[in-house]
Write a structure and sequence with these properties.
By secondary structure, this protein is of the alpha+beta class. The chain contains 6 helices and 10 strands. It has a 6-stranded antiparallel β-sheet. The longest helix has 20 residues, at 185-204.
Amino acid sequence: MQAELAKAITDYLKGRDATGYFQTEIPGLVIGRVEKPTAPNPRFSHPQLCVNIQGAKQTMIEGRVFDYREMQFLVVSVDLPILGRVMQARPGRPFLGMILDIDMDLLNAVMEQAGDVAEAANGFSIGVGDVDAGMADCLKRILDQLKHPKDIPVLYPLIARELYYRLLTGPHGGMLARLAKPDSHAKRIANVIHAMRADIARGLS
């Protein structure tokens, strides 16, 4: 499946600049292609799923380092200032990745149907995991939607729902569950950070 995902990204990016991150026709989905290792890049992340299809990346937050390699993902459950960089890439085998924003309304709906999800034992809001066969299949179907933009409004939410279910029932499900619960500490922090960012944006406009 890794080869199929890499081909789908490569085919989508044909005719575009050789390197960079590109917003797709699917809201909240960015595809990346980078041909050489990069310096640490600071950014403010929000709830996202970052998937490495080819190559390797590193993310640093609050003194912790998270390395994730080919067919691994990093999930971030709250707004966080992070440093990220591509660690493994070259022209003949570039880094290829996907970044998907997590739709909190849809996540909440899936969690209600999924039932109780055990909360994580630690308080971390970021984690790394392996892309299993079920998740890889979801990602492939998401990429296939880019060939049929008219289908995206109807079919993408259905695939995203399945993807969220697999995340919630996987090793990092408890971390996302904390964010989805309206009375959780993680949710309260996320709301405060979101309000602060909105205030800053208004001040700059």
